[in-house]
Each structure stands twice: as structure tokens, then as C-alpha cells.
Write a structure and sequence with these properties.
With about 170 residues, the chain is α+β, with helices and mostly antiparallel strands. It is built from 5 helices and 7 strands. It has a 7-stranded mixed β-sheet.
């Protein structure tokens, strides 16, 4: 008697990321769109709440993914901190406010944003990158980040972390 082993169903297709997406530096006039993009993540507790005025004031920190219709579909910010310890490998960068619109998650857009910010950090001679995440951090881990102690992070950033959020600290050397 011949038996046939059923094959698992193929994964469902994800929304493809087309070349028409532009990853670019944010501008102050993107502040309202950044706040709107970030709002669902703040509502879920994945991001800290930030007013649009803060996005406008720190627009230079952000890289955004802009869709063909002009809508912002993702963002990630980099804040550079001066080297605080002797013998450090240069300034340290902190990645924050990383979000990708729900309908674009799994499309590769987050990876594009992360690669763009890593390139920006290298251009600024950043020696290491840090981030805090309340999620799995799987995208960061796939891009060379690893769990790190908060004592290795820039002190000004480390002291600003809210211990109630129970975030994991991840780091990567550049």
C-alpha cells in the first residue's frame, strides 16, 4: 500500500515591497504623519507616547519610508550620544521609535529602515548601537544585535528608560 505524506501548506504571501518606496530623512513637516504612524504602537504599549511637536523638533533623528502615495509607512530614529568612556569605539547610537504600518509588516520594509539607519550611524562614526524593545526584538537579532546590559548603554539614555516597561536592551557593534 502506498501512502502519501501530505506537504505543509505554503506560507501566505506577504504584501511585496516594491521599489516605489522611498527611504529618506524625515522633515519637520512629517511630524503629524510620524505621530499618526506611531499612535497604534503607543496605544499597544510598544512605543512611548510622543507629541507631534517632539517629532518636529527631532525630525533630523528620523528616517522614514514613504509610499508611492506619499503616506509614511514606517520610521526609525537614531540619536547619537558622545563617547562617555575612555577607550570606547566612538560615539554610541540609540535607535528609537521603530514602527512599520501593520499592513507592511513582514514585507521587508523594517529591514530597509534598519539598514538605512545603520548606514547613517556608520557615516557618523558611531561605534555601537543600542535599542530597548518590549517586543521579541527578532528583526534586531537578525541584523546582528544581541542582548546587552544597560550599564554598557549611553548613561543619559539608560537613565531615561522606564523600568515599568520591562524592555530588553539590545546592542550591536559597528
Amino acid at each position: 500500500m502506498n501512502t502519501v505524506t501530505p506537504r505543509p501548506a505554503p506560507p501566505l504571501p506577504r504584501a511585496p515591497l516594491t521599489a516605489t518606496f522611498v527611504v529618506r530623512p524625515a522633515r519637520p513637516e512629517d511630524a503629524d504623519a510620524l505621530a499618526a504612524l506611531s499612535q497604534p504602537f503607543a496605544d499597544s504599549g510598544a512605543l512611548r507616547r510622543r507629541p507631534a511637536s517632539l517629532y518636529a523638533a527631532h525630525a533630523a533623528d528620523f528616517v522614514v519610508a514613504e509610499g508611492p502615495d506619499g503616506a509614511l509607512e514606517g520610521c526609525l530614529a537614531l540619536r547619537v550620544h558622545a563617547a562617555d568612556t575612555e577607550g570606547s569605539s566612538g560615539p554610541a547610537g540609540v535607535l528609537y521609535n521603530f514602527c512599520v504600518a501593520r499592513h507592511r509588516q513582514g514585507s521587508g520594509l523594517g529591514g530597509r529602515l534598519l539598514r538605512a539607519v545603520v548606514a547613517r550611524a556608520r557615516a557618523q562614526s558611531v561605534g555601537s548601537l543600542f535599542t530597548a524593545t518590549v517586543g521579541s526584538g527578532s528583526l534586531f537579532l537578525r541584523h546582528g544585535f544581541a542582548p546587552a546590559g544597560v550599564r554598557l548603554a549611553p548613561p543619559a539614555w539608560a537613565t531615561s528608560l522606564d523600568p515599568r516597561r520591562n524592555a530588553r536592551i539590545l546592542a550591536r557593534t559597528l
